[in-house]
Amino acid sequence: MTDTGTSRYRILGKLGEGGMAVVHMAEDSVLHRCVAVKTLRRETRDATVLQRFHLEATTVSRLGHSNIVQVHDMGERADGEFLVMEFLDRGSIGKIVSSNGGHLDAVCAACVALQASDGLSAAHDAGVVHRDVKPDNLLISRQGVVKVADFGIARLQNDVHRTEPGVAIGSPHYMAPEQAEGQESSPKTDVFALAGVLHFMICGRPPFEAENVMGLLYRITSHDAPELRARARECPRVLSELVRAMHQRDPDRRPSMSEVSERLRSWLAEHGILQPAEHLRSTLGFPQTATLSGNTTTAAVHIEAPLRWWPPERALTSIATLALKFLQKREAKASR
Ligand SMILES: Nc1ncnc2c1ncn2[C@@H]1O[C@H](COP(=O)(O)OP(=O)(O)OP(=O)(O)O)[C@@H](O)[C@H]1O
Ligand SMILES: [Mg+2]
Questions:
Q1: Among 159, 264, 305, 321, which is disulfide-ready with 49 (CB 3.0 to 4.6 Å)?
Q2: Residue 157: per-residue pLDDT
Q3: Residue 312's pLDDT is what?
Q4: 96-285 homologous superfamily
């Protein structure tokens, strides 16, 4: 890839790659700022699916919420649709956790989760469910501000898989049971996933693990999430209880995202933390990084492959197909 199809965005390097897209860091030659350009793969060419994706991306973008990644521009070029986003120079929470020794302390984890829950709660109020909350979709700036990325992408993935079995998928470690069973997602689906992200940040591993996708879906649909304090003794009880509530298998028994925000905010306030971004910035010790100035590129970022829990997704068949087979088997067993 040499440019984005419009001469405006000059590609500087690859930031990462997921199931549906490749993300590059680029220079916006008009506004002289760094941006992230996400090019969706060819499989997304279904017009209705793309229309829905645009709708969700623009809906959340219009919110202009400080904890949601801003989409600046969208377009189409020879090898697919692309969107131009604000560039978050410290990358994903997945990478931050890995570069921080494999986990974060409970207070830092709560600072990340609170900011994510504020963004998600605003999206829920606007009628949009994320459906793919995971450490790689939470990005952070050098000021410690956490932003939720990829609204609309999960829906896009689901719809593409429905029409094209066998195309790439993301890792389903944070999927809620209702999603794994192919039922409708709701705002509570994001609450379950955020519980998994909190679990991952504090323990250094996701709540559900298995040898393969089938095993993972089975665990998610048939087991309760492990207690956070059983894996991380040092985790404060209040936080562990909140995570347990968020991880309830019945969506109706989970708190709403705004309740999650409230509980995290008051727990952090009890610890004297009123500015979660500032706490993260100072605790994680982000160095000052230069940004683009004029035509000179001096942005200091890690341009590398993202932390992945799953081998390249192209080797996997679609979740929808696997889940269906799995459910059919289970039903067949039950009726025997
Ligand atoms: N706006 C951005 N600013 C900085 N880095 C970004 C931005 N968007 C994405 N990235 C980086 O690119 C990586 C790949 O993103 P991408 O969304 O394609 O994959 P993913 O989130 O790992 O998987 P999925 O396909 O499920 O979304 C991210 O993990 C992150 O490190
Ligand atoms: Mg993503």
A1: 159
A2: 59
A3: 34
A4: Transferase(Phosphotransferase) domain 1 (1.10.510.10)
